[in-house]
Amino acid sequence: MRVIFLTLWVTALSAQVVVWSRDLPNENLTGGAGNFTWGRRVLQWSKFEYREVAQAAHGYDDGGCVFGPADLILAERPSTGTLGRLVHLPAPDYKPVTIDTGVERHDCVPTKLFGRSGFLMVHRFTQVRFYWLQAGRWQMQEIYSIYTASRQGGLAVFDVDHDGRPDIFCGNYWVRSPKRFDRPWHIFAINLLHADPEDANFVVSPWQHELLALQREHALTPLRRFTPSADPRQLWTEAAGSTYERPTAISRQGRALWIGDANGVTEWPSGRRWATGHPVIAILPGGIVVGPNHVASWRLPPLRE
């Protein structure tokens, strides 16, 4: 009797963890943000159901973001090469509006700089750019170009020096905001991981006053915690933690991080596994895990604030 009860209890617990899963053949999913996934098509998710809102002949780059309540910013892949069209997909029709051409993008963060609502992106792993809408037209400002032996990946916005203005994390550096939009930005090294092409190609998340970073798609890479020095313009202190297999995504949920890698989703810092068996490309709100041709959902535990 005890064995039967224990089996039922474990089954019920497992049912709470993994609620449902679905294969999406031939979608070749590359990314996701908000309640959207994309690959060959753009799908908008509502609980267990989805609808197609857009498609591109050759699919979309992995980097994308939600702009405003439900608009999308995506980069269409070209038929050959790597440089495609950067597009704005306004809700509810999601008809593409060209923002720029000749773009390759893998990181995108919506933000507001000096009263301008737009998004940051990293172009070709070297250039940090800011795009914003002004009088119905898209404008672009080059923030900084970084040239090292490594690709510069990972993008986040955080006020590092506590001056009330948002600064930018990208790859090996944090980029200090000027006092005015028309003044130059300045970079300061956080770390010196740039000897090889993929060393600084991170996925990142601010954590309190630190930066958490994983080398994107690296085999067995540690979670690195970079803590600013008393003078944040100097190199930051690095501490390495648990390792992950080819990580691709970080999503913050309350006082926990969800880390997606080749083996599923892990909660940090507890180390609890929440999804297994599929490589993860993105983690959406509500516990949706996005794999190349697979979507699974699990019920999030209560947030520990």
Give the overall silhouette: globular
Order the strands across the largest sheet as they lie in space. Answer: 1-28-27-26
**What is the element string, with H for helices and E for strands?**
HEEEEEEEEEEEEEEEEEEEEEEEEEEEE
Regions with pLDDT < 50 over 5+ consecutive residues? Answer: 1-16
Q: What is the helical fraction, as a range of percent?
A: under 10%
What does this entry look like structurally?
The longest helix has 16 residues, at 2-17. The two termini are 39 Å apart. By secondary structure, this protein is mostly beta strands. Strand 24 (264-268) and strand 25 (273-276) form a beta hairpin. The chain contains 1 helix and 28 strands. Helices cover 5% and strands 51% of the residues. It has one helix at residues 2-17, and strands at 18-23, 31-33, 36-38, 41-46, 49-55, 65-67, 71-76, 84-89, 97-103, 105-113, 116-123, 127-134, 137-145, 155-158, 167-170, 173-176, 186-189, 202-207, 210-215, 221-227, 237-244, 249-253, 256-261, 264-268, 273-276, 282-284, 288-291, 294-298. It is globular and about 50 Å long.
Give a brief outline of the structure.
The chain is mainly beta.
Which helices and strands, and how do they pair?
Layout: H1 2-17, E1 18-23, E2 31-33, E3 36-38, E4 41-46, E5 49-55, E6 65-67, E7 71-76, E8 84-89, E9 97-103, E10 105-113, E11 116-123, E12 127-134, E13 137-145, E14 155-158, E15 167-170, E16 173-176, E17 186-189, E18 202-207, E19 210-215, E20 221-227, E21 237-244, E22 249-253, E23 256-261, E24 264-268, E25 273-276, E26 282-284, E27 288-291, E28 294-298
Antiparallel strand pairs: 1-28, 2-3, 3-4, 4-5, 6-7, 7-8, 8-9, 10-11, 11-12, 12-13, 14-15, 15-16, 16-17, 18-19, 19-20, 20-21, 22-23, 23-24, 24-25, 26-27, 27-28
